[in-house]
């Protein structure tokens, strides 16, 4: 019978197509992965991979084993979440994933408050735009911007926080210069987009320059503060920044909602329940700011 610890190495190589990539993802060295694969092949008396110039490719036997390996993975995760769900102590590790903007521009003071209230809970914050796989226990709670609730996985438990609105912003200095008739070039600031955004054709102030592209949200905010041009931001970012102002003639637009997501037995643990209740109350208090109701264009 195959050992699950060997099988998970097999799955990593099958999915990545590379021993090196699998080793990096598992946090082990190259030799460990090769040894585990060799152990699995010896135990099952078959060769599971062919090594080719392009990487590792499953053999016919490997293809058959893959289906059973994935079933073992699902069973392993189900066992972990069931055991985790029985843990009702307000201590231990709590992993939370949320987009960088939510972490740095809105919720970090609240995360700090929760950590102070519950010093026995070890907080692990993953500030990323990537969607963590809650089913595979990559995180215990995910706070996410959700545009279409119908696209949420059916196996996740979701608690809607508040509607999220976005507006178009520019620096107060750039707006003052535009009103004074200055000939400053006003560029649309975008994150990795190639075209000119739709909002560039709305409102009283129209960007005249070619797009200014930035790699992430933090650079986006820094660029608009420097007066490079205009950009779309969540209202909780733009309205809270004293250096920025809404572009006149463009109303905020609802972009979806902030959801708090958990999975299966995980949501029944005390530390997860405490956190979800705490954050949902804080998000409710932020509803005017997040919904774009707390400010207006100058």
UniProtKB/TrEMBL annotation:
HTH lysR-type domain ranges (all copies): 1-59
Coiled-coil boundaries: none
PROSITE patterns xrefs: HTH_LYSR
Alphabetic keyword roster: DNA-binding, Transcription, Transcription regulation
GO biological process entries: DNA-templated transcription
Alphabetized GO MF terms: DNA-binding transcription factor activity; sequence-specific DNA binding
SUPFAM superfamilies, A to Z: Periplasmic binding protein-like II, Winged helix' DNA-binding domain
Entry annotated with the keyword Nucleotidyltransferase: no
Pfam families linked: HTH_1, LysR_substrate
InterPro entries (alphabetical): LysR-type_TF_proteobact-type, LysR_HTH_N, LysR_subst-bd, WH-like_DNA-bd_sf, WH_DNA-bd_sf
The family this protein is said to belong to: Belongs to the LysR transcriptional regulatory family.
Name used for this protein in its record: LysR family transcriptional regulator
Source organism: Sphingomonas lycopersici
Lineage, opening ranks: Bacteria, Pseudomonadati, Pseudomonadota, Alphaproteobacteria, Sphingomonadales
